[in-house]
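S.,

Sequence below, as promised.
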Amino acid sequence: MTVARSILLFLLAALAEIGGAWLVWQGWREHRGLLWIAGGVVALGLYGFVATFQPDANFGRILAAYGGVFVAGSLAWGMVVDRFRPDRYDVVGAAICLVGVAVIMYAPRSG
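The prediction came back faster than expected:
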């Protein structure tokens, strides 16, 4: 159950961070206004809290692993929200990142 919880937390963190950054982008670059930016700032703050619920106590490990989730999640967000079409190098790169996440977070360690 710990791995499933950790994966769910990574997905929630990605949604908050990528969604928050997207809202700021929309507010500023697409001239949608301060409410969009404010929503983005709130979402980015929520991202910081979600990461604290990871079962592993090592901040550096959590943030390093989340980097790979962020890469793959950003491409997925772009596909769904902005109709971005990743090329094969995007897909291979994201897959490599997710393998890195699995190694960093879920490899057996001697305790």
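The chain is about 80% helix and 0% strand.

Coffee later?
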